[in-house]
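Exercise: predict the structure of this protein bound to zinc ion.
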Amino acid sequence: MPTEPVFTVRYWGITGSFCTPLLPEQVTAKVVESIEYLARQGRLNGLGPVPGLREAIEREVSLLPFHLRSTYGGNTTCAEVRTPDALIIIDCGSGYCELGRLLTKQWNAPDYKGAREAHILVTHPHMDHTFATAFFGPYYDPRNRFTIYATPQVIGSFEAVFNPDSKLSNTYFPPTFALLKAIERFEPLRAGQEFRIGSTRISTFPLRHPGGCIAFKLERHGRSCVFASDHEQQEVPDQGLADFSRGADLLYTEGQYTQAEYDGTKALPGEALMPRKGWGHSPIEACVRTALAAGVRRLHLGHRDPARSDEDLAWLERFARQLARDELCSAGRNPDSCQVVIPHEGLTVEI
Ligand SMILES: [Zn+2]
Ligand SMILES: [Zn+2]
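Solution:
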């Protein structure tokens, strides 16, 4: 068994469709509910203006439920995968901008001697997966080197806004490729293609989504991670995705709706009542069943609907976990054989 992780995955954005920052009243509600929660448990009783107060508060806050003390985050899709010989990034939603700030800091540290290189895998051209490209600081430093792997359709969308000869040049973003000097090359991809980045083997799979989308499977030293965001399952379980993800250590897929929201019998929080069939996303129940059919060890449900609060997401995570356990039990399988998580920004998983 390898002693160091085969993959280290960190999420920078897990929100679907568009950015969803916390509203001022939501921040206030978290503060009020947190204080009330601690006071009801008598955990504020011994606190006073004495030395060590801050550490005592931090200890109590760390014991609060996640949705009260923190947030899942409102940035759109971006995941970072590190291996000992490559930095691989999946999608360039708004979370990509935050990752760029970290890389700028790390790569410009006085004692940094590592590579200034990364490989960007783009699933599809929708804005929530691409629009932070112009706001990714490391693209502007000519010492850095980036390769972007994407379908011709995605590459065409970048050309449309960044090629200085395009009609849309300077329309959406002032910069063009002339300024984005660190983008070294584009590697055109088609679904089904396989390629390597360092010691990682990557395969691709077509997903069902308006305009098309591709899933990526990263394999290295007998471990595998599948990123299959933006996919509307046509059958449950989805045999194609289950075969592609068979036995994976991690399947990141979406969980935008519940079955009732998808069918239109229940409204998304604060939204109009209407079915979401054909919108290119799947019910959480379908994603859980496909993950169990695939026998994956971890299921991460991303691309959360922007209408949901942190409290809603905490509830959905409990719901999805219970569903997985029930289904595994009724099939006579180990109920703990698939760990179900709704990831939050900053969540880091070693595989
Ligand atoms: Zn999306
Ligand atoms: Zn999409």
